[in-house]
Write a structure and sequence with these properties.
By secondary structure, this protein is an alpha/beta fold. The protein folds into two domains: 32 residues; 150 residues, Glutaredoxin (3-Layer(aba) Sandwich), CATH 3.40.30.10. The protein contains five helices and seven strands, in the order αβββαβαβαββα. The radius of gyration is 23 Å and the shape is elongated.
């Protein structure tokens, strides 16, 4: 093979390099966007107690709540903010769950009290009460990536499951409800 032919082959191969990069990028993008495993981010606190805290409640800012106050019943700890578009999508379903008797404690995460109160007044309030985490310290201690996130906590205050993203009918029926009901049965025994 002559040098000219060899150079021509190398030139043609160089044309496929951008295509190879593009195809690799597309595959990685697909895996990142559509694979279910990304929704199950592990919690460092799984099977550990809710971290210690003493924070005010949203509707009664002079009252404080601690992790010890939450023990005794199974509950969902839902991290939300009025600034969070996904929380607005999730919110109506949380209202339905609360009306069915599911105990939900809110964690108003990095939000202004006035904005959070307006949100709950306008969209209804599914929470037994809301813990105010303005600086996000409790969120950091919980390993929160963003909002919404929902923690399933047993009667002893131990985190048993963490869901990152919106709680919708599919997530509730397929993932959270069986775990919630199992913990409820264990709490009665």
């Amino acid at each position: 093979m002559s040098r000219v032919e060899e150079k021509g082959k190398k030139s043609r191969l160089k044309l496929f390099v951008p295509l190879a990069f593009f195809m690799t990028f597309c595959i990685l993008l697909y895996v990142g966007l559509f694979m279910e495993s990304k929704k199950e981010l592990p919690s460092a606190l799984l099977n550990d107690p809710v971290p210690e805290f003493s924070l005010p409640t949203l509707k009664k800012p002079t009252e404080t709540v601690t992790q010890a106050d939450l023990k005794g019943q199974v509950y969902l700890l839902n991290v939300w903010g009025s600034w969070c578009p996904a929380c607005k999508v999730e919110h109506p379903y949380l209202v339905k769950l609360a009306k069915k008797g599911v105990r939900i404690i809110g964690l108003s995460y990095k939000d202004e009290d006035a904005d959070a109160l307006r949100w709950l007044q306008r969209l209804d309030d599914p929470y037994e009460f809301n813990i105010v985490d303005k600086e996000g310290r409790l969120g950091v201690n919980l390993g929160v990536y963003g909002a919404p996130e929902t923690f399933l906590v047993d009667k002893n205050g131990i985190i048993r499951y963490k869901h990152v993203g919106i709680v919708d009918p599919r997530v509730w029926v397929e993932i959270l409800k069986p775990k919630y009901e199992r913990l409820q049965k264990d709490a009665i025994q």
